[in-house]
Design goal:
This protein is 33% helix and 10% strand. It is α+β, with helices and mostly antiparallel strands. A two-stranded parallel ribbon has the order 1-2.
Length: 63
């Protein structure tokens, strides 16, 4: 489910050791729209990214 949301450009957030889950899904921590924080500290960042609906920075422009 994580990889599906990631491929669709959705915001992802995790806390309390979620780094291992993201890495197991092949999603690098630090990618655009991937937020890892302690507890509720992820919420403000997540709300900001969710407001854009998708994380377009994951998809480089093709020229």
């Amino acid at each position: 489910m994580l990889t599906e949301a990631y491929r669709h450009g959705k915001a992802l957030a995790g806390w309390d050791g979620a780094e291992a889950l993201f890495e197991a899904a092949g999603i690098s921590v630090g990618e655009p729209g991937v937020i890892i924080a302690d507890g509720a500290q992820a919420l403000p960042q997540l709300l900001e990214v969710l407001a854009a609906h998708r994380v377009w920075d994951r998809f480089p422009a093709v020229t």
